[in-house]
Specification:
The chain contains six helices and two strands. With 195 residues, it is mainly alpha-helical.
Length: 195
């Protein structure tokens, strides 16, 4: 097999893995919220802990910003001809950040105020938005095919000055989503969770 073909398959495999992760997150979200009424969806283990609704609300806020930034970066990358086939080498700090974000949580971080969701939102509004965002992420992954996933930079929701490689943004995004799905799962698994 020619080297170029092997390299192209590495790139496609990386993107396919990202696509599968977003699809898996979508499925997990549906399972996690199955059978929840509004009271249970909004129940908080304590006043200073998030409800399941707030976990998803936070992901919706961050996800909407991230999708927009991904779309802009992908469009810019296409216009600039920033193409590449991989395999891609990512900076160590980017790899560290993606690993740090993955559950289980080693260190809790306080969310900036603009990412703190309002409490008391209905599951019928929050869950469909979250599922739609996963579809948008999958679409971004498909649109990224052929781009240089390491060279093309994407601004993160936290700051327009803080940028990561496109490939690592996909990884960090899935890690962030898994982090808060695990948080929501802990709420549902709480001994005091309404039955």
């Amino acid at each position: 097999m020619p080297f170029e073909t092997q390299v192209a398959r590495v790139s496609l495999a990386e993107l396919e893995d990202c696509r599968r992760q977003f699809e898996s997150i979508k499925k997990e979200a549906v399972e996690l919220t199955a059978g929840l009424n509004e009271f249970r969806f909004n129940w908080k283990p304590s006043p200073n802990q998030w409800s399941i609704q707030e976990c998803f609300g936070h992901l919706n806020i961050v996800g909407a910003i991230q999708v927009s930034k991904l779309e802009q970066a992908i469009e810019r990358g296409r216009a600039m001809g920033c193409i590449g086939a991989g395999p891609f080498a990512y900076k160590r700090w980017e790899q560290w950040l993606a690993r740090f974000t993955e559950p289980p949580v080693r260190r809790r971080l306080k969310s900036p105020r603009r990412f703190i969701p309002s409490h008391g939102q209905p599951v019928t509004a929050i869950l469909p938005t979250f599922l739609h965002l996963q579809d948008q992420f999958v679409r971004c992954v498909a649109q990224a095919d052929g781009l240089d996933l390491a060279r093309l930079k994407v601004a993160l929701p936290i700051s327009k000055f803080f940028k990561m490689s496109l490939g690592m943004v996909f990884r960090q995004t899935t890690a962030h989503e898994r982090r808060h799905l695990a948080q929501a799962r802990r709420v549902r698994g709480s001994v005091n969770f309404p039955g």
